[in-house]
Amino acid sequence: MINDLDFILNFAATTRFDERYDVALGTNALGAKNVLCFAKNCLKLKLFIHISTAYVCGESSGLIMEKSYQLGETLNGVLGLNIEEEKKLIDRKLNQLRREGATEANIKKAMIDMGTERAKAYGWPNTYVFTKAMGEMVIGHLKENLPVVIIRPTMVTSTWREPFPGWIEGARTIDALTVGYGSGKMSFFVADLTAIVDVIPADMVVNTIIAAMMVHANNQPCQVVYHIGSSLGNPIRYSNFRDYLYFYFTNKPWMLQNGKPVKVAKPTILTTMANFHRYIAIRYLPLLKVLKLANTISCHYFQGTYNNLNRNIKRVMRLVELYQPYLFFHGIFDDSNTNKLLRIAKDNGMETRGQTTLAKDNGMETNNFFFDVKSIDWDDYFINTHIPGILKYVLK
């Protein structure tokens, strides 16, 4: 492989927001380092591409530029991050827990808590984006003369065109809201309706990667960052997303196993976290207390009902806390480099009109390189492609 490889793409990552710190650091930061060190030994390598996330910016607001992070720089007002020291902190904590005879469940919880604490200490909202930012720093620090491209997608949604419209694996970020609302399990949303929900179809991400491979395949030292998103070029807001869900599930209701449709109302919108906690306290906690009392009086007759409600309340509160930074996110991702890449791709003959394209310079037939987000009609995409794709490919 060292003698033959032309391109290396590092997609490997754990994407859980609240992953164990040892697992997330080992995969997202040190894993990236391991792949880079291998790449530096490849004799014919033309390009190393690292897939990151736009949200390595933390909870920034305003225009967020396509710039690299430097290892050791002061971030969010906190003195430079030392990744090797973070690894030592993890090892010391694990050794301490094992000496104390902690159970695996307790070790897991301690590692999850440690990741969240360390992320917030440095200004990131969760372990995922914190360790992904570390991965970028490691690559920038160790790449030397290796040509590197960093791809930063925003929230990746189902395919727009290829391999066919609506294809997706798993319901993440906003799609958890889609499933919860459509199935009747969630009647409220927590979000700033004026905030932009920055989504990008998966095939546009892939097409950008392929175009970057072709444009940068010159074995020249570089480090270029590409934001792939819609917040600047073709923004939609959480108010639009709410309307898409209400329109879709009103006209094509979710069907229960007994054949009855789920009737949805326009969701209640809680525009602050304080409103969310107040809503839970008023609507659900009194019912939980009544069930607990009834359970005691009836010799635990309502134990199952009480446990289910308690579990659901905790699950919703955990999900809202995890996603809160993105439900109230006010950053806009600059995509100047990506637009430049699109222009270069077009100038080089990567035609975008059909389902296939011909790279005229070398006669190589390739996939469609189309990734101009301005071309997407979001009304049509969500109603006729994305939401049906969730129901077909995630919930089949």
Description:
The relative contact order is 0.14. The protein is built from 12 helices and 12 strands. Helix 1 (21-39) links the parallel strand 1 (7-10) and strand 2. Helices cover 47% and strands 12% of the residues. The model is unreliable at 351-367 (pLDDT under 50). The chain has 396 residues and is α/β, with parallel strands linked by helices. It is globular and about 75 Å long. It has a 4-stranded parallel sheet, with helices on both faces. A two-stranded parallel ribbon has the order 3-10.
Major pleated sheet: 4 strands, parallel
Number of helices: 12
The run of helices and strands is: EHEEHHHEEHEEHEHEHHHEHEEH
Structural class: alpha/beta
Shape: globular
Uncertain spans: 351-367
Percent in helix: 40-55%
Would you count the extended β strands for me? 12
Mean of residue pLDDT? 89
**Strand neighbour order, sheet with most strands:** 1-2-4-8
Beta-strand percentage range: 5-15%
- The end-to-end distance, rounded to whole angstroms, is 39 Å
Rg calculated over all Cα atoms:
23 Å
Give a short summary of the structure.
The chain is an alpha/beta fold and about 400 residues long. It has twelve helices and twelve strands.
Blueprint (SSEs and pairs):
Layout: E1 7-10, H1 21-39, E2 47-51, E3 62-64, H2 83-99, H3 104-121, H4 127-142, E4 147-153, E5 155-157, H5 174-182, E6 188-190, E7 199-201, H6 202-215, E8 222-228, H7 238-251, E9 268-270, H8 273-283, H9 285-297, H10 303-327, E10 331-333, H11 336-347, E11 356-359, E12 364-367, H12 378-394
Parallel strand pairs: 1-2, 2-4, 3-10, 4-8, 5-7, 6-9
Antiparallel strand pairs: 11-12
Helix pairs in contact: 1-2, 1-4, 3-4, 6-11, 7-12, 9-10
